[in-house]
From TrEMBL:
Organism listed in the record: Cinara cedri
InterPro entries given in the database record: Phage_CHP, Phage_gp6-like_head-tail, Phage_HK97_gp6-like
Protein name: Uncharacterized protein
Top-level taxonomic group: Eukaryota
Pfam families, sorted: Phage_connect_1
Length: 182
C-alpha cells in the first residue's frame, strides 16, 4: 500500500526589519573615494540592496531582526529556524483546530542546530514560532563583501554586474550553511 508523506504548509516572515546597516555610508564613501554628498541617496540605496542580497545568499540575518515561522497542517516535533544566527525565542504558540485558541507550547531550543523541538507532538492546526536573529557584530569579511558589491554597482551603473556576483559570493561562502538535497 502506498501512502503519501505528510507535508506541512510553511510560512517564514520577517516581522521587524533592521534599521542600521552592517556598513556605514561614510565607510562606503571612503572606500569609493567619494568626497561629496551628491550621491548619498544612491549609495544608501545600493547599501540596502547589497545587504539584502547578502542576507538572501547566505540565508542569515546580519542585523538584529524578528522572524516568525508558521507550520500549518502537519506539525513536526522539530522545526528548523531560518535566517539565523538565532539569539532568542520570543514565543512558541499553537492554534487549536477546534476554537482557534492560542496557547503557549513547551519546547527545547538548540542553538547549535538552530531548531526548536517540542516536548510533545503538537496536536494543533498551526504552530507559530517567533524569534530574534542577527549577529552581535557582523564579521568583517561580510562587511567587505557588501562594500565590494556596492562599489561594483556604483562604478558600473550602466552595465550588467552579473559577472561580478561570483566574486562577491566568495566573500560570503564561509558563512553559508551547506545543504544536502535528496
Amino acid at each position: 500500500m502506498f501512502t503519501l508523506s505528510k507535508s506541512p504548509i510553511v510560512y517564514v516572515q520577517r516581522t521587524s526589519k533592521s534599521e542600521p546597516f552592517p556598513v556605514t555610508l561614510e565607510g562606503v564613501k571612503l572606500f569609493l573615494r567619494v568626497e561629496n554628498n551628491q550621491d548619498d541617496d544612491l549609495i544608501l540605496s545600493l547599501i540596502a540592496m547589497a545587504t539584502e542580497y547578502a542576507e538572501w545568499h547566505m540565508e542569515k540575518s546580519l542585523m538584529k531582526q524578528t522572524w516568525q515561522i508558521s507550520y500549518e497542517g502537519y506539525i513536526p516535533r522539530r522545526i528548523y529556524l531560518s535566517y539565523g544566527p538565532v539569539k532568542e525565542i520570543i514565543s512558541a504558540t499553537a492554534i487549536t483546530s477546534t476554537n482557534q485558541e492560542r496557547q503557549e507550547i513547551k519546547y527545547y531550543f538548540s542553538n547549535v542546530g538552530s531548531y526548536v523541538e517540542f516536548q510533545s507532538s503538537p496536536n494543533t492546526k498551526m504552530v507559530n514560532v517567533t524569534y530574534e536573529a542577527g549577529y552581535d557584530t557582523v564579521p568583517e569579511q561580510i562587511k567587505l563583501g557588501i562594500i565590494k558589491h556596492v562599489s561594483k554597482l556604483y562604478k558600473n551603473r550602466e552595465s550588467d554586474i552579473g559577472n561580478y556576483l561570483s566574486e562577491i559570493k566568495k566573500a560570503y561562502f564561509p558563512f553559508r550553511n551547506p545543504r544536502v538535497v535528496l
